[in-house]
Each structure stands twice: as C-alpha cells, then as structure tokens.
C-alpha cells in the first residue's frame, strides 16, 4: 500500500509540475524571433493581429528580430486616474511606447532619475490638464530617428535591421503616427512644399540621378539625419557634398 501511495504522489507531482510550467509559460512581453509574423504570434498567444497592432501602436505589419511586443491590452493594468502598474518584463521604453510617450516624458512625470523600475510600481502615464508640456509630433519624429543612429544601410531596407534613406524616413514617421509615402520621389511629390525647413521636416537631395533621390529629416542648424552608405548618421547640409545637391524641403505637419 505504501509503495502505491508513493507512486501516486510521484505521478501527481509530475502532473502538477507539467501543468505549472505550461501556466507560467505565457509572458506579458514577447520577443520577436527570426521568421515571426504578426499572424504567427497572434495564433501562438491567442490574440488577434488587430489587438497586437493596437496594443503596441504598430502602424504596419513589419517586425524586427528582438522587438518587444506586449501581449496585454493597455487597460489591463491601467487605472482611470492615468496610472499604470509595472508588470513583469516591462521597461520604461515599452511603457512609453504603449502610452505614446517618450522615455524622457515618462521619467519626468514620475520624477525618475534612473531607468530602474520594479514590478508593482505605479507610474503616471498622463500629465494633468494644467501642465501641458506635450512633445510636438516634429520632436517625436526627431527623437525616434535618433534611436537608429548607427543602423546599417540596406538598399530597400525599412526596418531597424537596415534602412535606405526613404526607408528610414517612412519608418520613423509611421512609428509616431504620421503616415507618409515610402520612396523619396513619392515623399517629394506627395507632401507640402516649404521654402525653409523646420525641425522634423524632410529635406531632399539630387544624388545619383535627376530628381529627388535622397531624403533626410531636418534637425535644425543645417543638420539632418539620414541613412547613407555608412548607415544612419547626422550630416551637415552646408558641406561641400550636400550643399550643391540640395533640392528643397517638404513637411508632413
């Protein structure tokens, strides 16, 4: 009898362990792997593609390896007072993306001096109506573009794995909720012309062929960020290469 009880206990322990492992396997944050698609991730985690895009503020179906995606609806841990409780796997960047803030805004709202957060911590995710220092869309474009400095050049590339010039501009603008055309030529023809660029506007150049063949995002003080042959970098519009090739500027705002 004793032998049978021990055998039953061992079997029960195995079954309990297996069930427990399965239950804990579902994480709130998913890291994109090579070959993943939104559909594949949605099927594996029993959510819809639409929900994945909404919860992660995605404006296209493009993904990149090691991208972090939340598998929970924002309101799951959001209160009516504009606060959010930190969950396992959260980072300031993931929370800022979820609530359409910059990391700097999020830290400022919560008087954080480091990037360290802990599970159960309650963070403010909206500013009060009386304090309205909101970041403009143009500044959001600039802040987003600067994240990719050093990303390699890739002909036809439009993800953080590699960008060409218009791949960078279209990705960045779409990322902050300002859809623009994909190519330099269609950005030039489809956006409003401006005589003098302001920070966040697009600046165009004539390089290897007639017409607008290169584009970057104007930063101010004759500086622009662009995806060139050496990758994403900041360049000077007044230098001997870019100045004679400058065509003009367009704005998406």
Ends: how far apart?
80 Å
Query: Helix- and strand-based class?
Result: alpha+beta
Indicate the low-confidence ranges by residue numbers.
1-26, 76-80, 129-134
Q: How many E strands?
A: 12
Radius of gyration: 23 Å
Q: Mind summarizing the main beta sheet?
A: 6 strands, antiparallel
Strand order of the largest sheet: 7-12-8-9-10-11
Order of helices and strands: HEHHEEHHEHEEHHEEEEEE
Q: What shape does the CA trace take?
A: globular
Q: pLDDT average, as an integer?
A: 81
The total of helices stands at 8
Strand content: 15-25%
- Give the helix proportion (percent range): 25-40%
Q: Could you please describe the fold and organization of this structure?
A:
This protein is α+β, with helices and mostly antiparallel strands. Helices cover 32% and strands 19% of the residues. The protein has a six-stranded antiparallel β-sheet. Strands 1-2 form a two-stranded antiparallel sheet. Strand 10 (223-228) and strand 11 form a beta hairpin. Helix 6 packs across helix 7. The N and C termini lie far apart (80 Å). Residues 1-26, 76-80 and 129-134 have low confidence and may be disordered.
Q: What tags apply to this protein structure?
A:
alpha+beta; two-stranded antiparallel sheet; 8 helices; 12 strands; globular
């Amino acid at each position: 009898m004793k032998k049978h009880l021990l055998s039953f206990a061992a079997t029960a322990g195995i079954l309990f362990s297996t069930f427990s492992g399965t239950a804990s396997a579902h994480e709130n944050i998913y890291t994109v792997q090579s070959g993943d698609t939104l559909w594949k991730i949605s099927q594996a985690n029993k959510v819809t593609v639409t929900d994945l895009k909404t919860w992660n503020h995605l404006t296209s179906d493009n993904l990149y390896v090691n991208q972090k995606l939340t598998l929970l609806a924002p309101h799951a841990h959001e209160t009516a007072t504009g606060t959010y409780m930190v969950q396992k796997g959260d980072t300031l960047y993931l929370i800022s993306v979820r609530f359409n803030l910059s990391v700097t805004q999020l830290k400022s709202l919560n008087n954080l001096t480091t990037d360290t957060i802990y599970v159960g911590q309650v963070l403010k995710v909206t500013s009060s109506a009386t304090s309205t220092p909101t970041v403009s869309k143009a500044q959001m474009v600039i802040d987003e573009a600067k994240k990719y400095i050093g990303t390699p050049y890739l002909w036809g590339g439009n993800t953080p794995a590699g960008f060409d010039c218009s791949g960078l501009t279209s990705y960045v603008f779409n990322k902050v909720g300002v859809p623009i055309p994909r190519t330099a030529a269609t950005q030039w023809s489809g956006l409003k012309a401006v005589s003098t660029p302001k920070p966040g506007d697009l600046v165009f150049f004539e390089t290897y062929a007639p017409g607008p063949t290169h584009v970057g995002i104007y930063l101010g003080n004759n500086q622009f960020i662009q995806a060139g042959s050496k990758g994403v970098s900041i360049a000077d519009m007044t230098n001997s290469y870019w100045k004679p090739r400058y065509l003009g500027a367009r704005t998406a705002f």
